[in-house]
Each structure stands twice: as C-alpha cells, then as structure tokens.
Write a sequence for this structure.
C-alpha cells in the first residue's frame, strides 16, 4: 500500500520535485488548504502580491529573467479571472507559467456557487493547456505534465484548477518525467537534417545583401543560444537586427547591430529589412508590428525562418526555407557544419557584402534615433539615455510598461546580455512592468532592477509597491511622466486630427508622496540639470524607489512606420508628418 | 501622408477559398471538443459542419470531422494550430474535391403527407439509400445518406411533399482503398 497524501500535500511535493523556489500568489477560500500546507515546505517561499494580475506579471518577470517557469497560486472566481490578463500576456510572449487555481468543491461545480467561475473555460484560449482535476490520484501526474507543457516547445502558460475537496482528499504521489514525448506532433522540436543546414549555408554564401532578424526565441532558447548567435554572426560578418523581445540576445553596442526593427525601429534596420536579398529570421514570428504592410514586406529577399513552433511558419509571411527547431540546437548544428567547409568566409565574403555595408552606413548616417534636446525640459529620450549611461556598468535588469516610454527604452537602452529586458510585447499590457520588476528582483537579489514606466501604465498595478516593500525588494520605478497616455496621444495627433479624446489625466497622484505612503523613497526630477544627480541618488538607495521624471508632455516617438506603409517609408520626425519621406530623408538634429 | 486611421494594416490579398475536410483524432476527455471548436471560433476559422464520436473505446479516442472553408494558408494554419493542442493525436486534411475520399452525411426527414405523396417522396429518395424508420397513415420518417449538396437538393424537392422536420449530421469522411491515415 503506497503512502497517501492530501491534494494540498501533493501540490507541494510536485513543486519540490520541480525544484520550485518561489510561488507568487494571493489566498482565498477555495485555495486555503494549499495555503495551510505552505508552512510545512520551507524550501518554497510565497510572495504575496496585492492583486492576482500583479502576482501573474511578477511570475512572468521571474520566469523571463531566470529562465525557470514562474508559478502562480490563486483562488477560484475573481482570483482566477484576475489572473487572465497575466496568462494571456504570457501566452502572447511565450513565457512559461504554471498557474494553480482553487475551485469550488466538485459537488458544487455548475451551481453558481460562491466565487465559482468556469476557470478552465475562461482560460482555455489563453493557456497552452489547462486541467480541472477531479481525482486526487490524478493530481501529481497532471501537475508534472503541466510543468512539462509549460516549458517544452514554445513555452507558455498552463493552468491546473483544483477543487477544494480534492485539496483535502488523499491520493497517491508519483513523479513521472517526460510523458509528452510519445506524440511530438509539433508540440516540441523535431530533428534537424543536414540538407536543410547545407541549404541554409548555401543561401548565406550566395547573398550579397544579407540580414539576421532575431527574436525572443533566441532568449527563450537559453543563454547559450545568445552565445552561439554571436559566434554565427562573427563568422559571417552579416548585419543583425532584433525584435522588441529579442533585445539583449546580441550586444546592443556592437557595430554589426542595426538596432531594433519594426514600427519604431531604426531607419537602418527597417531599410535593410526592406532591401535585403536574404533575411534570416531566428526565433521571431513576423508580427504585424514588424512587417508593416505584408504585400510590400521585403519584396526582393529570400527568407529563412527558424522557429520552434510549426504554426509560426508561413502564418504571416511565406518563406523559402523553414526549419522547425529550438534556436540553440539549430545554431550549434549550423555553426559546426559551417566551420567544416568555410574556413575563411568572413574575409573572402567581405568584398561581396561591402556595397551592402556602405548602403547600411548611409542609412545609419540619418541617425534616426536623434531628437532635439532641451535645456529647460527633460526630453524622455534624454532621460532614458542618461539612465543607460549611469547604469550600464552594472548588471541591470529593465522592465517596462506599455507605450511611448517602452519604445524609448527599447531604442535608447542598450542590452548586452539576454534575460535583462522584460517587456509586454505581444499583448501590450499596461501595468506589466512594476509587478514584473518585483518578480525579477525576487529572482536576482542584489541586482539593479528598474521599471521604465509611464505614469498612466504604472497606476494600473501601483498597489504592487506594497509587495516590494514587504519583501524588501529595492526595485526602481522610473516614471517618464508626461501626464498623457503618450502613445494614444501620439496616434490622436497623427491620425485623429489632434482630438485628444480622454488621453490626458487631469488628476494624478503626487508620486513622491505616493512613494512615501507605500513606505518607499520618492524622487522627482523636473530639470535636465538635476537629472544625473537624482538618478544616482535612486541607484544608490537600497529601498524601492518611485522616480517621478517630469518630461516634455508632447514629445512623439520617432522614427515610426505609419500604418499601412512598408519598411522603406518611415517617418523620421515631425517635419515628415505632412509629406512622404523622400530618398534624401530628413535628418533630425 | 495617406491617413489610414488605424494602427493596423489594411487587409490586401485574398487567396482563393476552398472547402476542406479536417479529420482530428483526439483523446476523448472533458472539454476536448470545446478546445477544437474554440480554436476555430477564436481564430476566425469557419465550421460548415461537425461530426464527432468516440471511435476507440479502449484508448478513449474520438474522431472529429470538420468541414471548413478557407484559403490554402488558412487551411495550413488550421492543421498546424490543431496539432499544437495537447489532446490531439493526428490531423488529416482532404480537399472536398479529392476523388480518393468518401464523404457521407446522414439525414432524417419527417413528412406529413398522404400515402400517395409518401410513395412519391420515397421514389425521389431511392438512390440515397432510403430507409423508412416510421410510418403512419398521415406521416412517415425516412433516413437517407448522401452528400451535403444532394441533401440540400432533397430538402427543396421534399418541401412541397409535406416535409415538416429535418435533422442531419455533419459529414464524415474516409479514404478509399486499403490505406489509412497515419
């Protein structure tokens, strides 16, 4: 007779066997037996958020910065529905999350019981898979399978819904690994064949205008993938651009790096994408913020696409060579194969790509990220640049909210390592950055963690400052405060005849006093002359800080690809708004 | 600048749409049908008809047959997205024009009609494996198995003969010859 455990005990035995260290969560009636069991498992620490969405984003921040799955524990009904935004966010950005939710007892399911909701029904479209466990004997198998689903193939969130009676009931515990392998079916990666590799290499050899376009898949594949990406690029000497999610996989200050591409990407990256003859997509998914108008997207190029998710291939853009693989596996194999026959490729190929590089240099000369600085008001771009200069020598982790500040952070903060940049790209969740910073700081005690925020976004999850204070997490909330929902305002200015409908916040809290109310430090900078000093003050304090950086209210985020336009028709600055960009372009001073 | 008032690009290309039959083998577990049809509705794919039942009691396998319409790209996406679902074992896809594939739908018709009209109706349905399931002086219920468009046509013909109720299944499909889909 095997030893029997309660459902709640089984939950923790599973978490222990999965080597979980932290749970982010919020208690409630239907999940109390699990919370009761928490005291018996000292190796697992619970981080109490102030809202389940906050707990979810914190788990995401933890996962993205550490490479381990984030664990979320919530109660039934509102606990589960509050977690939906975080689950959807994790689904869009491929973040491994395991959400355990309490449910009303099995005999009450379907009776509209107190705090009942159809959790598996609601979360079905925003998880890779979910389970409602109706037998304590199934619980161990389901939870271990949940971890496997969350972390294999393209990572993502999963949810296990456990009715309260199952948490009390006794069942068997067993730890079975690798249950999924028997039916791969594109659920995780397949084998790489030599023919594809040779094809890949031949296409690289034939190209005179190549570009690497790398994405979040490189980060998700682990730090080794970033190292291998660097090696492949140094072997070829090809230019490289990155999506928002891929930043940090390749060093941001390297001369081969053209900056981010896409709607607010650099002029050189987007033009190179448009004019290239070979596009090598590694771990990116041809998102609509990247491609712009699909019909005119990089019309003259052959395209290679490496993705772990078969459904990403051919979804938006047709490609000439697709390899379904984990990025790191592919890169390892490709580099090995490439080195076998191409000893002096870098030197011998220089001539072939020299014209291309000259062209890229010309685009670079437009200095598309430039802006007109001011001596009287802080320009948001300047604030991010100063923040970068003053923190670049530390191993700094940056999270963001969503909007203009996010794009300025992506443009002006340069990342040299993977897992240092956590931003909500796919779903675009305002309120992501603050709780994500909480999770990042939990995973990396002693490291500098900064949320580059907007004042509108940060108010959506500001309550998580309490969490930061409770666990002494010295996160820095660096708010670029322009009193507007800046990106909404920008679109209204450019496309809706300056009708700033509901995008101005007429009442805002005093962020310095707010910081003090939460028990952290508040700092305000309103003049460019005091910015550096105040930023240093923020970095040096070992407590959570809300930094109210009062910036230009009407600065717009450039460059940008206007809607429905291809990559080679970017707006570089205000003077472009009224006219088409000519070949000469307009350089911003 | 040309002012499109959207932050999204406008749709431009439309491929040619084709009818396809998608066959999905799934674990027969709670919520599996919701996962499959939820994927269709959530991603804006079409379901013309749907037929589902367990086909292997021991392994708890169900076979779902979905008739859908879409461009070749959409059909490809449907297959790839379905394969990602955890309870899905395999996915087959056949063009409705494919001569190697057999399709059948079953329909039940209730007619309220005198015997003369009943005989006439039976004659019309003759080549569609007509079976009389119930019969009275005033009414009868017949069963036919046929293609979708044939049943569509039958409905029109039977209306003046007293058709009062129609019940029909979605199409089910199978390949001709000894091969099975692996």
């Amino acid at each position: 007779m095997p030893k029997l455990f309660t459902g709640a005990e089984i939950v923790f035995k599973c978490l222990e066997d999965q080597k979980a260290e932290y749970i982010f969560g919020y208690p409630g009636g239907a999940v109390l037996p699990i919370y009761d069991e928490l005291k018996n498992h000292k190796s697992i620490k619970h981080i109490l958020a102030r809202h389940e969405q906050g707990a979810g984003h914190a788990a995401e921040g933890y996962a993205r910065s550490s490479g381990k799955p984030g664990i979320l524990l919530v109660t039934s009904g509102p606990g589960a529905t509050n977690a939906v935004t975080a689950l959807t966010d994790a689904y869009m950005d491929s973040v491994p999350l395991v959400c355990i939710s309490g449910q009303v007892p099995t005999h009450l399911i379907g009776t509209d019981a107190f705090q009942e909701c159809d959790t598996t029904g609601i979360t079905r479209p925003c998880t890779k898979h979910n389970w409602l466990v109706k037998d304590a004997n199934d619980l161990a198998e389901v939870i271990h399978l949940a971890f496997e689903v969350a972390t294999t193939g393209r990572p993502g969130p999963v949810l296990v819904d456990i009715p309260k009676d199952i948490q009390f009931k006794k069942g068997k515990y067993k730890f079975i690994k690798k249950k999924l392998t028997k039916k791969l079916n594109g659920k995780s990666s397949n084998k790489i064949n030599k023919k594809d590799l040779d094809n890949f290499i031949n296409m690289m050899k034939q190209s005179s205008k190549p570009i690497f376009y790398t994405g979040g898949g490189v980060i998700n594949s682990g730090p080794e993938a970033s190292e291998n990406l660097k090696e492949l690029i140094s072997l070829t000497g090809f230019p490289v651009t990155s999506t928002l999610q891929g930043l940090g996989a390749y060093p941001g200050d390297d001369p081969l790096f053209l900056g981010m591409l896409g709607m607010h990407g650099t002029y050189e990256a987007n033009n190179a994408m448009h004019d290239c003859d070979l596009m090598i997509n590694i771990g990116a998914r041809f998102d609509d913020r990247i491609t712009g108008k699909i019909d005119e997207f990089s019309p003259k190029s052959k395209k290679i696409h490496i993705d772990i998710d078969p459904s990403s291939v051919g979804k938006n853009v047709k490609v000439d060579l697709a390899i379904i693989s984990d990025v790191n596996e592919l890169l390892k194999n490709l580099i090995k194969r490439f080195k076998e026959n191409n000893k002096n490729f870098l030197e011998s190929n220089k001539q072939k790509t020299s014209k291309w590089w000259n062209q890229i240099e010309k685009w670079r000369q437009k200095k598309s990220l430039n802006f007109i600085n001011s001596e009287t008001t802080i320009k948001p771009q300047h604030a991010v640049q100063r923040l970068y200069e003053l923190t670049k020598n530390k191993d700094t982790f940056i999270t963001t909210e969503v909007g203009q500040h996010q794009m300025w952070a992506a443009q002006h903060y340069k990342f040299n390592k993977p897992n240092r940049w956590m931003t909500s790209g796919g779903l675009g969740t305002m309120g992501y950055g603050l709780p994500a910073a909480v999770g990042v700081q939990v995973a990396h005690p002693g490291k500098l963690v900064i949320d580059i925020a907007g004042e509108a976004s940060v108010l959506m999850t500001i309550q998580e400052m309490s969490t930061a204070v409770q666990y002494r997490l010295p996160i820095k909330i660096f708010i670029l405060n322009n009193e507007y929902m800046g990106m909404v305002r920008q679109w209204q200015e450019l496309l809706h005849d300056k009708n700033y409908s509901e995008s101005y916040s007429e009442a805002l809290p005093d962020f310095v006093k707010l910081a003090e109310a939460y028990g952290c430090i508040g700092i305000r900078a309103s003049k460019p002359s005091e910015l550096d000093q105040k930023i240093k003050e923020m970095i040096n304090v070992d407590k959570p800080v809300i930094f109210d950086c009062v910036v230009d209210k009407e600065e717009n985020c450039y460059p940008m690809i206007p809607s429905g336009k291809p990559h080679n028709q970017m707006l570089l600055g205000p003077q472009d708004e009224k006219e088409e960009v000519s070949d000469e372009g307009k350089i911003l001073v | 600048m040309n002012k499109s008032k959207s932050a999204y690009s406008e749709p431009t290309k439309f491929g040619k749409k084709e009818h396809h039959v998608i066959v999905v083998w799934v674990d027969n577990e709670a919520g599996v049908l919701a996962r499959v049809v939820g994927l269709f509705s959530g991603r804006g794919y079409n379901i013309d008809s749907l037929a589902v039942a367990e086909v292997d009691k021991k392994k708890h396998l169900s076979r779902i047959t979905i008739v859908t319409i879409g461009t070749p790209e959409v059909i490809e996406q449907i297959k790839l997205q379905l394969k990602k679902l955890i309870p899905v074992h395999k996915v087959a896809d056949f063009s409705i024009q494919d001569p190697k594939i057999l399709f059948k739908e079953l329909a039940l018709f209730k007619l309220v009609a005198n015997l003369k009209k009943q005989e006439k109706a039976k004659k019309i349905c003759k080549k569609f494996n007509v079976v009389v399931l119930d019969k009275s002086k005033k009414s009868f219920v017949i069963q036919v198995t046929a293609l979708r468009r044939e049943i569509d046509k039958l409905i029109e013909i039977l209306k003046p003969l007293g058709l009062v109720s129609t019940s029909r299944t979605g199409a089910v499909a199978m390949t001709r010859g000894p091969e099975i889909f692996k």
In short: The radius of gyration of chain B is 21 Å. Residues 72-84 of chain B form the longest helix (13 residues). The mean pLDDT of chain B is 91.
